[in-house]
Amino acid sequence: MSTKIVNAEVFVTSPSRNFVTLRLTTDDGVVGIGDATLNGRELAVASYLRDHVAQLMVGRDSRNIEDTWQFLYRAAYWRRGPVTMAAIAAVDMALWDIKGKYAGMPVYDLLGGASRRGCRAYGHASGMDLESLFDSIRYEMEEGYKSIRVQTSVPGIEKLYGVAAQAQSSGERYDFEPANRGSWPVEEDWDTRAYLRHVPTVFEAVRNEFGPDLPLLHDGHHRMTPREAAQLGKSLEPYDLYWLEDCTPAENQEALRYVRSQTTTPLAIGEVFNSIYDIKDLISEQLIDYVRCASTHFGGITQLKKVMNYAEMYQVKSGFHGPTDVSPIGFAAQLHVGMTIHNFGLQEYMPHSEKTKEVFTESLAFENGYLNPGETPGLGVEFNAEAAEKYPYEQAYLPYNRLADGTVHNW
Length: 411
Ligand code: GCO
Ligand code: MG
Description:
Layout: E1 5-13, E2 19-26, E3 31-35, H1 42-57, H2 65-75, H3 82-103, H4 107-110, E4 119-127, H5 130-142, E5 147-152, E6 180-181, E7 187-189, H6 192-210, E8 216-219, H7 226-236, E9 243-245, H8 255-262, E10 267-269, H9 280-284, E11 290-291, H10 300-312, E12 317-318, H11 328-340, E13 347-348, H12 354-359, E14 360-362, E15 365-367, E16 370-372, E17 381-383, H13 385-389, E18 396-397, E19 400-402, E20 408-409
Helix pairs in contact: 1-3, 2-3, 6-7, 7-8, 10-11
This protein binds D-gluconic acid (GCO) and magnesium ion (MG).
Residues 39, 178, 219, 221, 271, 321, 323, 325, 348, 398 line the site of D-gluconic acid.
Domain Mandelate racemase/muconate lactonizing enzyme C-terminal: 130-266
Organism: Corynebacterium pollutisoli
InterPro entries: D-mannonate_dehydratase-like, DgoD-like, Enolase-like_C_sf, Enolase-like_N, Enolase_C-like, Mandel_Rmase/mucon_lact_enz_CS, Mandelate_racemase_C, Mandelate_racemase_N_dom
């Protein structure tokens, strides 16, 4: 059986938003695809793949996934970083896709088989006021979601992450995709004291309206110091959150020791991490409850499976990052991991737009709050290069934050 890679192609397309896709083809015509999308910095990864990786793939045996991963990681000499690891992720996913197609099995079967019937997903609710927030929660529940992330506007903050229906500078609804098309990042504003005062009142109102049972989540989006994060965690304890996400930037893993010692609110971190070394202390010291890493930004299926096997020893579960900037390929890749690991927790799910689905045909099903990648051999996603051509790359930037005095703050 011949399994040599003969072609490695990189596509950048923008069906509603930008995506970077790698396509590997073997000499008997089997095709594997991988996601290398890095929101706001897409072309850097496309160049890394096109200019430095593609020629190294040609002639390699597609079967040796671990060896290829180690080769790309170690032979670059310069380790880690979001650009490098998104490029490695794309190769890794494409190789798993190819292996699944050769085997005639979905990737989760190759990873050890299904540990569950489906992966429970959470939806996104937000509102400018309580009424619109309640409507948004009801809508998500009608869509089938059994767990819901709640983001709210805060009096005194004009433009805030995660609040749909908020006007963007372009005049369009903010919805779920925070990146704005254009050549300059949009400025948003931030006031930690106003936020810390307001958010607990919103969760109190939500609990009064929806009762104690519904699992609720909230994303702090890296904006607090450890002490402020501890204050928020404590003040949310009466509302029994499923998790509080990115309560503080975690480049400094020790910072979580203080937060953890002050509050029993469950903590989830990791969407901006790209290596197991970014999260190992958070796991081994049990400073978090959920791993938020995404296959696309974390070196692919191979590294995500390893970190989750490590986390299993410490009773830390998965909560993989699943916004629309993870393409349907990256999303499928982590869903296959979620299907097989014992310590699956919850999967973020933001359905892709119709244009995106025209370029990426998915086999996944979302039913009654659960996601299933289906039985299609490989990842279960097809990339339509002709449709992709209709949507050329458009520059887009994530917003950034300034405080009232003009200081740049974490976004
Ligand atoms: C989430 C994330 C996203 C990020 C986005 C940046 O929890 O889903 O915080 O909304 O902001 O992925 O590109
Ligand atoms: Mg987040």
